[in-house]
# Entry
Amino acid sequence: MVKPFVPQLVYVEPRAMEYPLGKELVDKFENMGIEIRETTSHNQIRNLPGENHFQKYRIAKSTLVVGVRKTLKFDTSKPSAEYAIPFATGCMGHCHYCYLQTTMGSKPYIRTYVNVEEIFDAAEEYMKERVPEITRFEASCTSDIVGVDHLTHTLKRAIELFGKTEHGRLRFVTKFAHVDHLLDAEHNGRTRFRFSVNDDYIIKYFEPGTSRLNERIEAAVKIAEAGYPLGFIIAPIYLHEGWKEGYLEMIEKLEAALPTFAKKDLTFEMIQHRFTKPAKRVIQENYPMTKLELDESKRKWKWGKYGIGKYVYTNDEQEDIKDTIGGYIDKYFPEARIEYFT
# Structure
C-alpha cells in the first residue's frame, strides 16, 4: 500500500510565513524533523541535492515548496470545467506518461500555495461574472491535490466553501486513496470527487508511487458513502496486449464494489494515451527503462488547441476504444453518463 506523502525536504518562501497556513505547515514539518530551507521564490529552487539528473529528479519529487500563488488569473480548464483553480502544482506520483512531465519541465517538485483566502476570493469573482450560470472549477489540472491534502487541508476547506455557494461547483481527480480526512466535509453535493482508474497492467508498469486499483476502488466506495457525487476518469487508455480483457476486468471490479445508489449519478471521462515530441524526450530521460510505447510511426498526428501537435491513436483504434470501453460502461453502468472521449 502506498503511504501518504511525507516530504523529505521542504522549502519555504519568506512571504508564506505571513499566512496562517504557512506558519502551520512550517510548525508541522519542524515537529516531524524534516529539513526546512528558505527560498526566494517557489519558481526558483536551484540547489536541490543530487549528483546527477536522475537523482535530482527523484529528490525533487519528494520535495515540497510552501509558497504564495502570485497569479490569481485562473486558466480556462479542460473539457470538464470552466476554470482551473490553483491550490498546488506538481505531483509525488511517478506516472511515466504524465503531461506534467513537460509542463513542469525542470521544476518537478511539489508546490502548495498558502494564500488560500485570496484564491477563494478570486474564485468568487469568477462565479459572480457568470451568474446565473453554474461555474465549475477543476482543482487537479496541475497536481494531484488529494496526494498532498492530508498535510494542508486546503482541498477540504475548498469543498466546504463550495458547499455553501449557490453557483459554484468543485471537481478534481486523484490516483490516491488517502481520503479519510475528506469524508466528513460539508460538501452538500457540490463537489464531484473523481478517481483516475486504469487496468492492472498500466498501474503496475506506468504508475509507480500511486495507490493500486483496489485501494482506489475502496476509497471511491468511502466517498460514495459520504454522499459525494462520484466519477471515474479512465486515462490514459493505452493499447497493450490483452487491453480489452484488462479494461473489462477493471469495469467489473468497479461494478462489484460500488453500492447501488452510487451508480445512479456516475460520470465517466475517457482519455486516450497521447504524447508530444518534447514529452517523449523528457519521459525517456526521467524513466529510461520505461515500457511505454512512444513510436510516432504507429500514431496519428493531431494539432492541439494551443498549436502544439500530439501523437494519438489512429482513427480505427480510437473507434475500437470507444466501442469497447464505452460498451463495457453501457453494459455495467447503464445509468452512468460518459462525459467525453478525447
Summary: The two ends are 31 Å apart (CA to CA). The first strand starts at residue 9 and ends at 12. The chain has a mean pLDDT of 94.
